[in-house]
Amino acid sequence: MSHTIRDKQKLLNRVRRIKGQVEAIERALVDERGCNDVLQLITSCRGAMNGLLAVVLEDHIRTHLVDAEHEHAHDEWSATEQLIEVVHSYFK
Q: Where are the domains of the chain?
């Protein structure tokens, strides 16, 4: 079972909080609030997204890469290479 299915409710709760934060950004823009308020809302949302990414990435590494490395040590596409690819995609 995939970790995103196993932890589905916990992840959905995080996503719903992020959705609320994005909606707060939209409301702030519509209400023409100051840039300081908007920036604060954006950084809060960014922090929540980074937190979600960290949880999913950590579970992905533990579930699919570390354990897979031992099971499929002969595979051409190693866990190390997969991890590097994931990290590179994050910084694009």
A: 3-90
CB 6 within 8 A of CB 62: no
* CATH superfamily ID and name for 3-90: Metal-sensitive repressor, helix protomer (1.20.58.1000)
DSSP single-letter state for residue 66: I
CA 21 vs CA 4, 14, 62: distances in Å: 22, 11, 29
pLDDT digits (tens, 9 = 90+) for 22-38: 999 999 999 999 999 99
% residues pLDDT > 90 (the chain): 49
Q: Which two tokens stand for residue 34?
A: 């100051």
